UniProtKB/TrEMBL annotation:
InterPro entries reported for this sequence: ATPase_NBD, Carb_Metab_Reg_Kinase/Isom, ROK, ROK_cs
Organism: Paenibacillus foliorum
CDD domains per record: ASKHA_NBD_ROK_BsFRK-like
MF terms (GO), sorted A to Z: ATP binding; fructokinase activity; metal ion binding
Catalyzed reactions per annotation: D-fructose + ATP = D-fructose 6-phosphate + ADP + H(+)
Lineage summary: Bacteria, Bacillati, Bacillota, Bacilli, Bacillales
SUPFAM superfamilies per UniProt: Actin-like ATPase domain (SSF53067)
Keyword ATP-binding: yes
Name of protein: fructokinase
């Protein structure tokens, strides 16, 4: 199968070609400017590629309800120009193949279950900690949608006792994203995350927030694997800090071997690295074709 994949991000759109085994043979990326310009480039790319189906994992919020008149729209984003934009419909107008559509993080979770760190499992949560924080989930083998789709990045968290930072989320100030996404780190410490590697306090506070969210995701969804990706997680020292915090916060209440003895293999980086989103979009394409 020749399949197309799109990881539609707020910073850039990554497009690629691959197959049903997750092998990616071509990729290109376009900066996210206006829908006309960015989608124009995406459409041009796929027009010449002759794919059988396309999958889109998109930044959101998006409308995933197939019976809605705005299915396939990016809806209430604060990102200029993209509010109420029919990303799926615009592509469909120019490329007449089946197109699957979901959130960027649901796509990444799907890629990880199919070919990555959660391979063979029927549940996982994929969290990206980057410019924003988002999470996708597979529950009993299915992508989790619901009322809208999960917005776990805006989970409410308890403040670290030594952190006076007011928070950066325009809606909630000190929610998870407001306190722990890349721009929050930069604003709190006056430097970008990658320049703060040696400052232990930065990562102690960061891990405290991420661990609270992870602990809540464990309580609410009971995933068999938690995958943490995105730019901020390039700071690998966060993994042991988060695992220790999670173990302390759970305090033995959830009694599973994965948590007690094998937590190193439970809270992990993406098995597909930076390809999780694009690979997941291939799975969305494959599924759309098979429906
Ligand atoms: N090595 C690093 N260490 C710490 N922080 C980093 C590192 N690399 C990138 N970041 C931070 O991650 C953020 C960018 O995230 P990412 O690279 O995942 O891109 P993005 O696709 O724009 O994010 P999003 O998925 O939220 O749209 C920036 O705030 C940046 O400072
Ligand atoms: Zn928020």
């Amino acid at each position: 199968m020749k399949l197309g994949a799109i990881e539609a991000g707020g910073t850039k759109f990554v497009c690629g070609i691959g197959n049903e085994h997750g092998e990616i043979t071509d990729r290109i990326s376009f900066p996210t400017t206006t829908p006309e310009e960015t989608m124009g480039q995406v459409i041009q790319y796929f027009k010449e590629k002759d794919v059988e189906a396309i999958g889109i994992g998109s930044f959101g919020p998006v409308d995933l309800n197939k019976s809605s008149s705005t299915y396939g729209y990016i809806t209430t984003t604060p990102k200029p120009y993209w509010n109420q934009y029919p990303v799926l419909g615009e592509l469909q107008k120019h490329v007449n193949v089946p197109i699957g559509f979901d959130t960027d993080v649901n796509a990444a979770a799907l890629g990880e279950v199919e070919w990555g760190a959660a391979r063979g499992l029927s549940s996982c949560v994929y969290v990206t900690i980057g410019t924003g924080i988002g999470a996708g989930a597979i529950v009993e083998g299915k992508l989790l949608h619901g009322l809208l789709h999960p917005e776990m990045g805006h989970a409410l968290i308890k403040r670290h006792p030594e952190d006076p930072f007011e928070g950066k989320c325009p809606y909630h100030h000190d929610c998870l994203e407001g306190m722990a996404a890349g721009p929050a780190i930069e604003m709190r410490w006056g430097k970008k995350g990658h320049e703060l590697e040696q400052n232990d306090k930065v990562w102690e506070i960061e891990a405290y927030y991420l661990a609270q969210a992870v602990t809540n995701f464990i309580y609410i969804l009971s995933p068999e694997k938690i995958i943490l990706g995105g730019g901020v997680m390039k700071q690998k020292q966060l993994f042991p800090l988060i695992r220790n915090n999670v173990a302390q916060m759970l305090n033995g209440y959830v009694q599973k071997r994965e948590l007690a003895e094998a937590i190193d293999d439970y809270i992990v980086p993406p098995g597909l690295g930076d390809n999780a989103g694009l690979s997941g979009a291939l799975v969305l394409a494959k599924r759309e074709l098979q429906q």
